[in-house]
């Protein structure tokens, strides 16, 4: 089964908790704090694998979690960091944040990899909080939570040349004739229901990849037929071979077919029309093909809407007539055509939020439930809360000071909070005290 798009959930590991501990050794009555730091949580990493061709592996396994870091130990021992969770994907996979619809990365080359969910850093042990005023602090941090994201994976085939056209114009037959691929071939529409790839190898050692796409029909860009499912696979191609049946066997106008297919490409993505096209007249072994080809050439030459009339080449995949000139012309155009950027993959320099980077969202928000409870939320505030160990009074007091420093107390007063009102952060509820 060919699977080219899927949505999965990824969760990085939390950092290990820092420890509250003290040296208790003979002849060391005032040993001081000795609680170690927690280990780093594992990150979720996507990496290209040359052994994969589809996203089938993700169809039934859609949740991926990295391990948590180990808690800190006594004698200042740091907990073990967790291994990253590496997820292998095929070449040509684009990763998109499902919530923001922003492209995270475009993994094209062998060895490409990207951290999609950053593991949380380990919490600091009490050895870090000793001061002259408080030489024996009962204070340690919990590990930072790991990032969690919903990621959409879209596979766009890595092909140099794309075969486009109406159903039954001979795309699969051409692919089988010029490559070693063995696509399904039949005398009925939509014989091809998934893209097929093949490699054309020239005698001089050069080669190029060809993608045979399921047949387009009028309205494909609006979701009719199979075309909309696979149009994205020609986004990486540099040259399009536009196959047109000139035999007249199905009583279609070849010139009208040319206009309809290009209209669908324009509706899907106007940039697709910027790619060089070679119009390939197929089934030239049939009786009326030569006459119909001349009519097609005349109409294309007289079409004032075209910037330049496209190159027209005639072939018969059955008798192999015209295949060698077609391949040579395709290679010639490929050598002159650079790669086209994939839509939405222009600004991949965006840095993922890590523990050393500020969180750019609002520090906190205040809302009120129907029962009168004040509810505090916000990425920064919730992060501080999750890293606070409420089992120790000093940690709780430190958290209260952090809230005051962020301006939470003043903001609650401005909203109308009074002494004794309940305030909730996540699943923790406390009283507001003036």
UniProtKB/TrEMBL annotation:
| Cofactor(s) this protein requires | Mg(2+)
Q: Where does Mg(2+) bind?
A: 172, 192
Which InterPro entries does the record associate with it?
A: G_OBG, GTP-bd, GTP-bd_Obg/CgtA, GTP-bd_prot_GTP1/OBG_C_sf, GTP1-OBG_CS, GTP1_OBG_dom, GTP1_OBG_dom_sf, OBG_GTPase
For whether the record's keyword set contains Cytoplasm, the answer is: yes
Q: EC?
A: 3.6.5.-
The entry's protein name is GTPase Obg
- Which residue range or ranges hold the Obg domain? 1-158
Its localization reads:
Cytoplasm
Keyword flag Signal: no
**Protein residues bound to GTP:** 165-172, 190-194, 212-215, 282-285, 316-318
Which positions fall inside the OBG-type G domain? 159-335
As for what it does, the entry says:
An essential GTPase which binds GTP, GDP and possibly (p)ppGpp with moderate affinity, with high nucleotide exchange rates and a fairly low GTP hydrolysis rate. Plays a role in control of the cell cycle, stress response, ribosome biogenesis and in those bacteria that undergo differentiation, in morphogenesis control.
Gene it is expressed from: obgE
């Amino acid at each position: 089964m060919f699977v080219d798009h899927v949505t999965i959930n990824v969760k990085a590991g939390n950092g290990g908790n820092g420890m509250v501990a003290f040296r208790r050794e003979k002849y060391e009555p005032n040993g001081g704090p000795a609680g170690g730091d927690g280990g780093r949580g594992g990150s979720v990493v996507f990496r290209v694998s040359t052994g994969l061709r589809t996203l089938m592996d993700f169809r039934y396994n859609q949740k991926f979690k990295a391990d948590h870091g180990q808690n800190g130990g006594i004698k200042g021992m740091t907990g073990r960091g967790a291994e990253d969770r590496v997820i292998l994907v095929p070449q040509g996979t684009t990763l998109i944040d499902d919530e923001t619809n922003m492209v995270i990365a475009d993994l094209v080359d062998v060895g490409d990899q990207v951290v999609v969910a950053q593991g949380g850093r380990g919490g600091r042990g009490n050895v870090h909080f000793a001061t002259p005023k408080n030489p024996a602090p009962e204070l340690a941090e919990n590990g930072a939570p790991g990032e969690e994201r919903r990621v959409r994976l879209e596979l766009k085939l890595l092909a140099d040349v794309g075969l486009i056209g109406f159903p039954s114009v001979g795309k699969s037959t051409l692919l089988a004739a010029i490559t070693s691929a063995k696509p399904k071939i039949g005398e009925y529409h939509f014989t091809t229901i998934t893209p097929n790839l093949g490699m054309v190898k020239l005698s001089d050692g050069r080669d190029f990849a060809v993608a045979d796409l399921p047949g387009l029909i009028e309205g494909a860009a609006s979701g009719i037929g199979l075309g909309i499912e696979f149009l994205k696979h020609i986004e990486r191609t540099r040259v399009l071979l536009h196959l047109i049946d000139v035999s007249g066997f199905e009583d279609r106008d070849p010139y009208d077919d040319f206009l309809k297919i290009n209209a669908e490409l324009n509706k899907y993505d106007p940039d697709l029309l910027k790619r060089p096209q070679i119009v390939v007249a197929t089934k030239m072994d049939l009786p009326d093909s030569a006459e119909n080809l001349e009519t097609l050439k005349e109409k294309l030459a007289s079409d004032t809407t075209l910037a330049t009339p496209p190159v027209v080449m005639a072939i018969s995949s059955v008798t192999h007539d015209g295949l060698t000139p077609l391949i040579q012309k395709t290679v010639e155009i490929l050598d002159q055509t650079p790669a086209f950027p994939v839509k939405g993959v222009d600004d991949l320099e965006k840095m993922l939020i890590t523990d050393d980077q500020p969180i750019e969202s609002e520090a906190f928000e205040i809302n009120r439930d129907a029962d009168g409870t004040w509810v505090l939320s916000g990425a920064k505030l919730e992060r501080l809360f999750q890293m606070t160990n409420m089992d120790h009074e000093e940690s709780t007091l430190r958290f209260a000071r952090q809230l005051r420093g962020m301006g939470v107390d003043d903001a609650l007063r401005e909203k109308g909070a009074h002494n004794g009102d309940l305030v909730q952060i996540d699943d923790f509820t406390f009283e507001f005290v003036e």
